[in-house]
Amino acid sequence: MQKSGARPLPSLSVRIDLDAEGRIGPGKILLLENIHTCGSISAAGRAMDMSYKRAWDLVDEINRICRQAAVERQTGGKNGGGAMLTPFGLSLVARYRKIERDAAHAVKKELEALQSDIGRPKKSASR
């Protein structure tokens, strides 16, 4: 439990470099989660304050670097269609979040030590 006014524990951000050109990180995973929740690429983009074009470009990049579709567009319907995660997309999100949790657990003590070091006042140089 943290004391009131205490600095929050430093956190770890995970970016996975799949190859020289392709990366999966917290932003792309959040976009996939928002697509799953919102049911459309445009709504997911709006939830992240992102244009539809930017959201679509990221989805296209995810599908390209993974060499299989993480998102499937749906056409038609009374609301004009939408998008959903494929089984691969759901697996990608779950796997990334597990890697993220495992990594955070592995470095927890070091992050706590870092927080302690950052919170110490600087020693003044004696003259």
Global morphology = elongated
Q: What is the CATH architecture term? A: Orthogonal Bundle
| CATH evolutionary superfamily | Winged helix-like DNA-binding domain superfamily/Winged helix DNA-binding domain
The helix tally amounts to 5
Mean pLDDT reading: 87
Largest sheet: 2 strands, antiparallel
Query: What's the number of domains?
Result: 1
Order of strands, widest sheet? 1-2
Low-confidence stretches: none
Q: Give me the Rg, rounded.
A: 20 Å
- What is the string of helix and strand elements? EEHHHEEHH
Q: What oligomeric state do the depicted chains represent?
A: single chain
Per CATH, the class reads: Mainly Alpha
CATH topology: Arc Repressor Mutant, subunit A
CA(first)-CA(last) distance: 40 Å
How much of the sequence lies in strands comes to: 5-15%
Would you tell me the structural class of the helices and strands?
mainly alpha
Helical proportion, percent range:
40-55%
Number of strands: 4
Explain what the structure shows.
It is a single chain. By secondary structure, the chain is mostly helical. It has one domain: Winged helix-like DNA-binding domain superfamily/Winged helix DNA-binding domain (Arc Repressor Mutant, subunit A, Orthogonal Bundle). The protein is built from five helices and four strands, in the order ββαααββαα. A two-stranded antiparallel sheet has the order 1-2. Strands 3-4 form a two-stranded antiparallel sheet. Strand 1 and strand 2 (23-24) form a beta hairpin. Helix 1 packs across helix 2. The longest helix is centred in the last third of the chain and has 20 residues, at 87-106. The radius of gyration is 20 Å and the shape is elongated. The mean pLDDT is 87.
